[in-house]
Amino acid sequence: MRDIERARALRQKQTWAEKLMWSWLRDRRFSAYKFRRNHPLGKYFLDFYCREASLSIELDGGQHGHPEQQAHDAERTQFLASMGIKELRFWNSRLRREQQAIRDTIFRELQARAPHPLPDYTRPLPPPEVGGKGS
Question: How many domains is the chain built from?
Answer without folding.
Answer: 1
